[in-house]
Known about the structure:
disordered C terminus; mainly alpha; 17 helices
Amino acid sequence: MTDSAVQPxxxxxxxxxxxxxxxxxxxxxxxxxxxxxHLLAILEAIADNPQRYALEGHNAHVYAAxxxxxxxxxxxxxxxxxxFSIAEELLVDLWGDMTTETLPTLLHRTANGSLTAIMDLVxxxxxxxxxxxxxxxxxxxxxxxxxxxxxxVVTFLQGLFTGEEAAADSWFWGNLAATLxxxxxxxxxxxxDQAYADNLVPPGFLDPGYVAAANDKTxxxxxxDLVSWVQARMPKDVHAYVSWFAEFHQDDxxxxxxx
Length: 259
């Protein structure tokens, strides 16, 4: 595919429309290698100047992120992180619900097995709290697909309860405890209990009874629940995947199909 053929696809993705461009997405799927550098450039443009990108009224970034995640493109991993590590108001304008609903999938599918950049994002106090929480969720996805990584992830998360990683009223703390519960809280109970004692985790966000119930499960049952949750968050059909990310709520795709 030549650059002259790529540009009409990018233009179609960049337009705001009520119609999902299924034909263009199908064509994009046939030309992954030719299209990928252009999709990466879109993410870099957001990261370099998100305000300008927002003011110019672009929409192609939604397709860029979605397609690169579908391609499981490792080169997209750090550009995605940079493109989501922007000021809160621009994050809402450009990405909307993708931050909470789909960023974990984007991070997981482009990570190529490495958790380093995701962990760095979780630790980044300059990043939006919801972006950091999405990164935590992406770590749980890694454990769901590779249980051998559980100890690595749990140890990392346990070490974040120092009280210095986020503002006192941040959702960071509750999400941190909830993620440890998703991974079975047994070996994290002392850390979680101390977090409650230190008033880091507000009981209104995560009731202590929820922690106790999670601990009553067997580790095997806990992992089965985690796998089911992760699969439910990852649409199996590429068009449902991309159109959902692009916020097309069509009658036959009110929710992404379960994997």
